[in-house]
Structure formats: C-alpha cells, structure tokens
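Lecture notes, continued. The same structure-token format from the folding unit now serves as the input rather than the output. Read the line below as a description of shape only.
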C-alpha cells in the first residue's frame, strides 16, 4: 500500500495512464477503420464473417477494456491501493485486440481467394 506522501503521485499516474489508454483506444479505432478500407476490393471470394469479427474485435473489446480499466482504477483508488498498473494492462489488451483483429481481417480477405 502506498504511503500518504505517495498517494497523490500514484493517483495522478493512474489518471494520466487512463487518459493514455483512451488515446490508444481512439488511435486503434482509426487504424481499425483504415484496415476496413482494405476490404473494399473484396469480392464473393472473401469470408465476410471473419472480416466482420476482425473489424468488431478492437471496437467492442477495446471499449470493454477501457470501461473495465476505469472502473477497477476508481475502485482501487477509493480503497487506497495502487492502481497505476491497470491502465497499462488495458493498453496491452487494446494493442493485442487490434493485432488479432487485423490478422482476422487479413485472413478473411484471402481465406477462400487463394488457389
């Protein structure tokens, strides 16, 4: 548990990291939408279900990660526990969801089109 002198710094660090996580979420939305434009060339040979899952994963999963991070951070700060690590984990989850989603979109574009 942080000492009385460390509480303002730990709380400020948590708030800064939560703002950074929100920024990473917005950046991942922009990247995800740019990746979605790559599917414009898809014909009937693309797997639209896989592409849709890959598109929705960073959007929905990232929002859930952000809301959970905010909730857990507020809860731990109210209990006077260290909470700066929660937004860091949330950022890592957001990046992982974006990478997985991009991979799914890419595999859906070429799943049935290769010979």
């Amino acid at each position: 548990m942080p000492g009385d002198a460390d509480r303002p710094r730990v709380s400020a660090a948590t708030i800064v990291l939560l703002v950074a996580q929100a920024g990473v979420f917005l950046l991942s939305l922009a990247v995800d939408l740019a990746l979605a434009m790559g599917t414009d060339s898809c014909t009937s040979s693309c797997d639209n279900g896989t592409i849709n899952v890959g598109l929705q994963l960073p959007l929905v999963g990232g929002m859930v990660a952000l809301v959970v991070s905010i909730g857990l951070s507020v809860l731990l700060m109210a209990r006077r526990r260290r909470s700066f690590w929660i937004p860091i984990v949330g950022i890592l989850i957001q990046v992982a969801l974006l990478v997985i989603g991009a991979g799914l979109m890419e595999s859906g574009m070429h799943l049935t089109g290769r010979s």
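Point for the exam: Residues 7-110 form one domain.
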